[in-house]
Every structure is written in structure tokens, then in C-alpha cells.
């Protein structure tokens, strides 16, 4: 739902039964923030994954970081 026009976000929120508080996680979001859908449960999350871990290096999808590792 990120990067959707405001009207489209409202339509999606109504269709998915997303509360205004939950919707704030996709309208004013930062890196590692969003909504998880599990069955009929919607969980807002904030994940600040440490960037100095080997696991981060393996999992990152940031092209600039991947290029540095391979270069």
C-alpha cells in the first residue's frame, strides 16, 4: 500500500478493514515499518535490524550495499 495516492489508500483501507491508526504505518512510514497481515489479524510493525550483522549483509536488497560487497 506504500506509495499509493491518498484516495487509493482509503479505498484499500476500507476493503482490507484497516483502522486509521494502522493506516498511519503505510502513510507516514520509515524504513522497516509497515503492516503484516496474518489471517484476519493486522499487525503494525517497526523493525530496526542492526546493520553490522552478517545476516544483514546476506539479506540486504539495497543495490548500493550489494555493489560494495561485490566490488
Provide an overview of this structure:
It is a single chain. The protein is elongated and about 45 Å long. The protein starts with 5 loop residues before the first helix and ends with a helix. The mean pLDDT is 84. It is an alpha+beta fold. The protein has four helices and two strands, in the order H-H-E-E-H-H. Helix content is 46%, strand content 17%. It has a two-stranded antiparallel sheet with strand order 1-2.
Helix and strand topology:
Elements: H1 6-16, H2 20-27, E1 33-38, E2 41-46, H3 54-59, H4 63-70
Antiparallel strand pairs: 1-2
Q: Give the overall silhouette.
A: elongated
Residue runs with pLDDT of under 50 for 5 or more positions: none
Radius of gyration: 16 Å
What's the overall average pLDDT, rounded?
A: 84
> Sheet bearing the most strands, described?
2 strands, antiparallel
Helix content: 40-55%
Q: Would you list the SSEs in sequence order as H and E? A: HHEEHH
What order do the strands of the largest sheet run in, or round the barrel if closed?
Answer: 1-2
Strand content: 15-25%
How many beta-strand elements? 2
Notable characteristics:
71 residues; alpha+beta; two-stranded antiparallel sheet; 4 helices; elongated
Amino acid at each position: 500500500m506504500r506509495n499509493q495516492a491518498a484516495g487509493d489508500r482509503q479505498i484499500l483501507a476500507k476493503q482490507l478493514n484497516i483502522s486509521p491508526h494502522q493506516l498511519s504505518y503505510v502513510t507516514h512510514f520509515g524504513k522497516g515499518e509497515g503492516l503484516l497481515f496474518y489471517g484476519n489479524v493486522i499487525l503494525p510493525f517497526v523493525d530496526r535490524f542492526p546493520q553490522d550483522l552478517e545476516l544483514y549483509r546476506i539479506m540486504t536488497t539495497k543495490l548500493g550495499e550489494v555493489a560494495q560487497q561485490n566490488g
